[in-house]
Amino acid sequence: MTSLSLYRILTFLATPFIYVWLYIRLLRGKEDSKRIYERFGFQMHARPTGKLIWLHGASVGECLSMMPLINRLLEQNKNLKIMVTSGTVSSAKLMEKRLPKRAFHEYIPVDIQGACRRMVRHFKPDAVLWFESEFWPNILGEIRKADIPLILLNGRISDRSFQRWQKALWIIKPLLSLFTLTFGQTEEDARRLRVLGARETICVGNLKYAAPPAPFDAVELRRLLRQIGKRPVWVGGSTHPGEEEMMADIHVQVAKAFPGLLTVSAPRHPERGNEVRRIFEKRGLKVAQRTKEEAITPDTDVYFADTLGEMGLIYRLSPIVFVGGSLVPFGGQNMLEPMRLGRLVMIGPNAFNFREIVSFSKERGALVEVADATSMLGNLVFYLKNKDERRAVGRRAQTFAVSAMAVLDRVYDVLKERLDLK
Q: Is pLDDT at 158 greater than 90 in this prediction?
């Protein structure tokens, strides 16, 4: 019996428990009550006429990485339709705002064979593009059973995953062999994918390089900048638990040298709102919260941006940006977003999910990597004092980030040939 067959049997037997798990998630607000039926393979949309390409990304980060490719596909193929799937409420809300005409969002069904089969048979896509490394055996198996081209984009195999999967080739090899083609983020990722069982692998670059500057509301930006005035300001974006505490302590220390300092906090998961606000208030800091429409006043210490899909606005509030998930061992978040805006970007030592970007950026003097919170405090003080050095790093960051966007052309050229696009 193969690992895929065993998985199908186990998920069939576990179906009642999976339904209970979904119901618990629904009660906790982690599922969309209005669209929960999609998670069982019953779709909201009819199958559009013409050629349909399906793109899947696990959550917000992957969906954002898709956007440049989605736009290129639609621009170059006037009769093409795009379906995007993901599994989180936050990504669904973001896609509702960002997807262009001729593109729509569906929730990915839970990985039960019946639900997956219903979805594949309903939409009958002409090709499926799977982003990064969320592998669900039943849905991937149903796609390949239907003889639909299945391509892995931006595939990444971390050091830990590679070591683990080498000991479980009987599981990963059948999964990777389902893909007709795999793109590695780096040459090393492509090599690891081959070792683990992918049939054909290539590397043309990391699609995360291709994302354009995030959109923003120009009127709202002007309003916030007027409220900030000439105060010294820095942003902590996409932060994770543990990092807001460090930011709060850094604010207290740096404000002694820079009276009027404003810290802008934008956590990765805005639903942590009350928790994060309390972290700053425990240090005696006055917080203005965006979702409560609280204005930035002269005595505001922290502007708490607990909204979704507004990083294009938030990163424009300050010339100095710390990108989170990197002072704690999470792996980092995408630092290219603020770099494209010419911001001086600081990261911690744990941005291992973006190793290639970090390496290239540091070689060019386009990124500031700090060892810990103490180091970040020192760098923040230095760059608040030294505008010329700050601007120089920001210019180098922007040059690097913009030049790297050519990866989109290379990916599209391969897909155009493989999928018979125009």
A: no
Could you please report the per-residue DSSP string of 82-120? EEEEES-HHHHHHHHHH--TTEEEEEPPPS-HHHHHHHH
Eight-state DSSP code of residue 35 = S
- Per residue in 110-149, pLDDT (tens digit) is 999 999 999 999 999 999 999 987 899 999 999 999 999 9
pLDDT score for 321? 98
- Three-state DSSP at 188 gives helix
CB contact at 8 A, 124 and 47: yes
Between residues 210 and 138, the one the model is more confident about: 138
Locate 111 and state its tokens.
């990985």
Contact indicator for 86, 95 with CB cutoff of 8 Å: yes
**Taking residues 276-280, what's their average pLDDT?**
96
Contacts of 329 (CB under 8 A, 6+ apart): 350
Separation between Cα atoms, residue 247 and residue 112, nearest integer Å:
43
| Whole-Å CA distances, 312 to 4, 218, 337, 413 | 42, 10, 8, 29
pLDDT band at 1 (very low <50, low <70, confident <90, very high): low
Q: In Å, how far are 63, 74, 308 from 420, measured between CA atoms?
A: 24, 14, 36
pLDDT of residue 355: 87
Whether residue 70 contacts residue 100, with contact meaning beta carbons closer than 8 Å, is answered with yes
Kindly give, in sequence order, each residue whose CB lies less than 8 Å from that of residue 241, ignoring residues fewer than 6 positions away: 272, 328
pLDDT in tens, 284-298: 999 999 999 999 999
Percent of the chain past pLDDT 70, that is, above it, reads 100
Q: Which region holds residue 406: left if phi is over 0, alpha if psi is between -120 and 50, else beta?
A: alpha
Q: Phi, psi at residue 179, to the nearest 5°?
A: -80, 135
Alpha helix (H) residue ranges in 196-318: 218-228, 243-257, 273-282, 311-314
Report yes or no: 139 and 108 within 8 Å, Cβ to Cβ. yes
Q: Which 3 state secondary structure label does DSSP give 345?
A: strand
Sequence-distant (≥ 6) Cβ neighbours of residue 153 within 8 angstroms = 69, 129, 130, 131, 132, 183, 207, 411
Question: Which 8-state DSSP code applies to residue 183?
Answer: E
Q: In what order do the strands lie in the sheet with 287-289?
A: 287-289, 302-304, 262-267, 233-239, 320-323, 344-347, 368-369
Q: Are 95 and 83 in contact (CB under 8 A)?
A: no
